[in-house]
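Thread amino acids onto this structure.
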């Protein structure tokens, strides 16, 4: 199960592995769309600039117009020098 501290590594994030991105912002809370509840992360995640869902591998997201940014745990990433 591709899960780390409650956050899934989504298959839509795979095409971005091995590439370089800038961190767009840190995320410490999200809104659960199904329940309307605010979910707070114990460990913040990050959103990478330019890495968004293209709906390549998910059955029910074909041609997803939302272009949702996947969230990444910092321990999944490697820092690089500019």
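Threaded sequence (82 positions):
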């Amino acid at each position: 199960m591709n899960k780390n501290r409650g956050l899934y590594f989504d298959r839509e994030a795979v095409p971005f592995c091995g590439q370089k991105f800038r961190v767009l912002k840190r995320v410490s809370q999200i809104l659960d769309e199904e329940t309307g509840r605010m979910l707070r992360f114990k460990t913040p995640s990050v959103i990478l600039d330019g890495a968004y869902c293209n709906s390549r591998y998910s059955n029910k997201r074909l041609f997803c117009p939302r272009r949702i940014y996947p969230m990444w745990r910092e321990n999944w990433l490697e820092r690089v020098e500019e």
